[in-house]
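Weekly modeling sync, notes
Attendees: AB, CL, MP (scribe)

Item 1: holo prediction request
CL wants a bound-state model with MTE before deciding which constructs to order. AB pointed out that an apo prediction alone won't tell us much about the pocket. Agreed to run with the ligand included and paste results into these notes for async review.

Input as submitted:
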Amino acid sequence: MANIKIPKGWEIPENRVTPESVYINRRKFIKDLGIAGAGAISLFGSTACAQDSKAEKQLKPYRDQKLEHKKNEAFTVARPQTEEIIAATYNNFYEFSSGKTNVWKLVERFKTRPWEVEISGLVENPMKIDIDDLIKQMPLEERIYRFRCVETWAMVVPWLGFPMKVLLDKVQPKDEAKYVRMTTFMDPDVAFQQNNNRLPWPYVEGLTLAEAMNDLTLLVVGVYGHILPPQHGAPIRLIVPWKYGFKSIKSIVSIELTDKKPRNFWNVILPREYGFEANVNPNVPHPRWSQAKEWLIPRRDVSYPTRIYNGYGEFVAHLYK
Ligand code: MTE
């Protein structure tokens, strides 16, 4: 939104941070459901982990697979970029763990190639395509976006991908199509938390067709110049930077155009806490904690004001008039 003053957030130190206990409640809920992983209690200690040479070693094969792309200079952020190793060792991927700092260690057996993505439902040209064939057909670009988790942590990451609109134009949504429903892979042998049948696997997320067609909405196949490592949702994930991170579904196998609003994973589990729209908004608190502030991983001790639509109002505010 043109008339919103974008403050230089990193210049405003804030000593009062939201108590850790409120986030631990979300973990407690999950723990009560019986899926707490080994890392569930070490939520915020990513720095030591990030220094770990094992993490560097885990990343290496992915770093070696560079993706050709152009940089889209329209999307940069006046905030320091998050170090790659920090972002790669602090993940939410509940298929593998309800912790964050151990996800990268648990994805070893997760094979993300070969991989097919199906685009179906209310479209003129349904398709099923191998991920590398899809990548060859798409105009890959790098965009540096702010990313904001509903739990108040944030990061700044150079994603590599293509606008979802390019793919949707290819399959041609029918007039009746109103929503896009995306689904993550299902493989309980590899993703152990999927054996917990008290959670509504597979992970599903959705957007309105207008949100999916917005220029900001990216299908992401790489990060920091190379293919996605598994912990970030390889081989293809969504990034919708004006929404809380849980909307940005990982490891997608199906994209379905529909006339019905999809029930999303977190909305099914906790409908009073996680909605469908989930736009970043400092003025609407989560029922159990404030959304007014955020902190940049790994510095939990410094917080910044949250921005409406995560600072992307000029691109998306019109969608919600
Ligand atoms: N997608 C799937 N399939 N499973 C998940 O648990 N977590 C979401 C989102 N996409 C999640 C998911 C949440 S809560 C966040 S904050 C982001 O992924 C985290 O992305 P990152 O690990 O790449 O930072």
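Recorded for review: Residues 75 and 132 are 25 Å apart (CA to CA).
Action items: CL to compare against the apo run; MP to circulate these notes.
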